[in-house]
Every structure is written in structure tokens, then in C-alpha cells.
Write a structure and sequence with these properties.
Strand order of the largest sheet: 2-4-3
Order of helices and strands: EHHEHHEEEH
Largest sheet: 3 strands, antiparallel
Helix content: 40-55%
Structural class: mainly alpha
Shape: globular
Strand content: 5-15%
Radius of gyration: 17 Å
Distance between the termini: 69 Å
């Protein structure tokens, strides 16, 4: 069983995740390796939680947009759960990973989890009027 950082989970509500987003994240947490690496396809994850292909794709997009899940470039079927939410083999490993993640975020080498950007309503956009 992996150790999870409670601080990260306490902040999940701020990220405006849907039930499907939470379900997909839960499936990823079940199959993660220590440190948050997930080697599973969306089809495999989808089968664990019973989501449709489209809903799984949307949920994964939400998790990636909010930096809860990180996608390494050029790696198929490979994801990383952000260090703030990943599971670790020991308390010491978790503390070191969280310390390194915090330093990397401050240095700009890692993105912090964040809620989606506010949506602008089209009514707020001025229209062009012809004379």
C-alpha cells in the first residue's frame, strides 16, 4: 500500500473536478507505481471505472489541464500523477518528493496544480457595430 500526501488531497476541491475526473484519478491511483507513474492506457483505466471512451478522454483532459496528471512527451500509455497527489513507498520518500516538487515549482520546472482558467461569456465581449 502506498502513502499519499494529505495536503494535496485537501486541495482537490479547488480544482473543479467532475465525478468522472475523480473516478479516473482514482483508477490511476490504484495502478500507480511509487512516485506516481501510471503505465496504463485510457481504455484500461476506462474499464476500471466504467466510463465511456468520450467521457474518459474529457476527464483525462481535465486532469492534464489542471496539472493533476502530467503527460511525458513521446511516451505512449504513460502518465505521472503530480507529486502532490502521487503515492509513495515510505514517509521519507514522500517528504523528499514533496520538497523537490515544491522547489521545482518555485524554479518554474514543474507546474503547480491549478483550477481551470475562468471562462469568458460571449455576452461580455464587445461586438463590432457597423455605421
Amino acid at each position: 500500500m502506498l502513502i499519499q500526501a494529505h495536503l494535496g488531497f485537501a486541495q482537490l476541491h479547488r480544482l473543479e473536478l467532475s465525478k468522472a475526473d475523480y473516478d479516473l484519478l482514482s483508477a490511476m491511483m490504484e495502478v500507480q507505481r511509487p512516485g506516481g507513474e501510471v503505465n496504463a492506457s485510457q481504455a484500461e483505466l476506462r474499464a476500471r471505472v466504467g466510463l465511456s471512451k468520450n467521457r474518459t478522454s474529457i476527464a483525462m483532459s481535465h486532469l492534464v489541464e489542471r496539472n493533476v496528471v502530467l503527460r511525458p512527451k513521446g511516451r505512449y500509455r504513460s502518465y505521472f500523477i503530480h507529486p502532490y497527489f502521487a503515492g509513495y513507498a515510505s514517509q521519507e520518500e514522500m517528504e523528499e518528493a514533496l520538497r523537490e516538487a515544491t522547489e521545482a515549482i518555485k524554479a518554474g520546472a514543474l507546474v503547480a496544480p491549478a483550477p481551470p482558467a475562468p471562462q469568458r461569456h460571449l455576452a461580455a465581449v464587445p461586438t463590432r457595430r457597423s455605421a
